[in-house]
């Protein structure tokens, strides 16, 4: 699988230098971006060109790997990933999570907020190398944004997320409202429940209001079902034209009620106080920021030869950091959560986090 890029990644890891390797949904290309120093480049505005990695809380601490060295590998071939020996339910956090969800529901009933996304983090033994895990992710989840991020000042993270935070090409703008989950089973044709439909509608409504005055000609698709691994979600695509800069749009969108809640501040306060761990980069966002794309303006041959007819577009493509894990020396921390509304059933919400954890557990092979 992509030997030249793999060799470059291994060299970077051996030297303790930052890089990110990723593949966009349904793409053939695996991209690597490499940094030649250990500097932690903090983002102050969103005008730089590079790959951004932003936490859930306080996106002022977002980190950038500037676009200096980029390798694009198109020789990637998927491999067969055997069933993971780690793919089993760990129930040690069950009671805590169920109580957390009960507290969330009771706050909703008291009218403190309408929706809150509650999550947990658990640890598994993992001796697989980062590159082995990246290969397993790429082979297992072709329609997700798969990545491996390494920075000695930040950590090692991997994920396969189905959720776009935003895509922009100059002023053209797209995002999505993604929420509501059910397991992919024989009864896929079954209707979505009222709880899932409401929880996803809240996200769509929030995004439309948040972008009011910032994006022109805002238009939302119908609600559709999206498959992500062994899960199904509800999705609405939202498009328009940006009227303001990228920073203003990102700050209006993040965190959406797909990862935080509604109203934002009350839900966030509850999360920070009650979850009892630090989400760090889980439910933050990551991706290409201000990449230049050169396009020919005309198909006329004479024009193509003339540099003046080339146009340079600024493109950003950011994803929400879901279905992810953080690698430590000999273990992985897996992050999972779900949206809670007044109709949530705590036991089902626990099961949903168990189902979501399969996305990362399935790629862990090496349990020595
Ligand atoms: C918070 C997560 O998922 C979000 C995205 C899609 C569906 C979700 C849900 O049904 O709760 C969550 O809003 C997660 O995977 O950890």
From TrEMBL:
Residues 97-292, 313-356 form the Chorismate-utilising enzyme C-terminal domain. InterPro entries: ADC_synthase, Chorismate_C. It comes from the Bacteria. PANTHER family: ISOCHORISMATE SYNTHASE ENTC. This is Isochorismate synthase. It comes from Aggregatimonas sangjinii.
């Amino acid at each position: 699988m992509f030997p030249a890029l793999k060799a470059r990644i291994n060299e970077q890891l051996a030297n303790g230098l930052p890089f990110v390797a990723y593949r966009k949904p349904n793409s053939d290309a695996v991209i690597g971006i490499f940094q030649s120093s250990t500097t932690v480049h903090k983002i102050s505005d969103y005008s730089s060109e590079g790959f951004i990695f932003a936490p859930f809380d306080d996106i002022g601490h977002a980190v950038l790997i500037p676009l200096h060295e980029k390798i694009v590998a198109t020789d990637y071939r998927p491999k067969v990933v055997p069933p993971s020996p780690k793919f089993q339910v760990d129930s040690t956090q069950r009671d805590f999570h169920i109580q957390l969800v009960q507290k969330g529901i009771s706050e909703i009933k008291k009218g403190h907020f309408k929706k809150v996304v509650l999550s947990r983090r658990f640890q598994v033994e993992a001796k697989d190398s980062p590159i082995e895990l990246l290969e397993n992710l790429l082979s297992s989840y072709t329609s997700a944004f798969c990545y491996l991020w390494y920075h000695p000042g930040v950590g090692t993270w991997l994920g396969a997320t189905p959720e776009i935070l935003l895509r922009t090409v100059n002023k053209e703008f797209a995002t999505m409202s993604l929420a509501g989950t059910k397991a992919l089973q024989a009864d896929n044709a079954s209707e979505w429940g009222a709880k899932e439909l409401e929880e996803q509608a809240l996200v769509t409504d929030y995004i439309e209001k948040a972008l009011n005055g910032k994006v022109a000609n805002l238009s939302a698709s119908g609600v559709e079902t999206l498959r992500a691994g062994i899960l199904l979600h509800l999705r609405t695509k939202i498009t328009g034209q940006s009227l303001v800069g990228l920073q203003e749009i990102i700050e209006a969108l993040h965190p959406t009620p797909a990862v935080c809640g509604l109203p934002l501040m009350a839900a966030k306060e509850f999360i920070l106080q009650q979850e009892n761990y630090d989400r760090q980069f889980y439910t933050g966002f990551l991706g290409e920021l201000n990449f230049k794309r050169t396009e020919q303006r005309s198909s006329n041959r004479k024009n193509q030869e003339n540099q003046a007819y080339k146009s340079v577009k600024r493109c950003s493509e950011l994803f929400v950091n879901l279905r992810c894990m953080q690698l430590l020396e000999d273990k992985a921390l897996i992050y999972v959560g779900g949206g809670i509304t007044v109709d949530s059933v705590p036991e089902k919400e626990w099961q949903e986090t168990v189902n979501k954890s399969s996305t990362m557990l399935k790629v862990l092979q090496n349990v020595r």
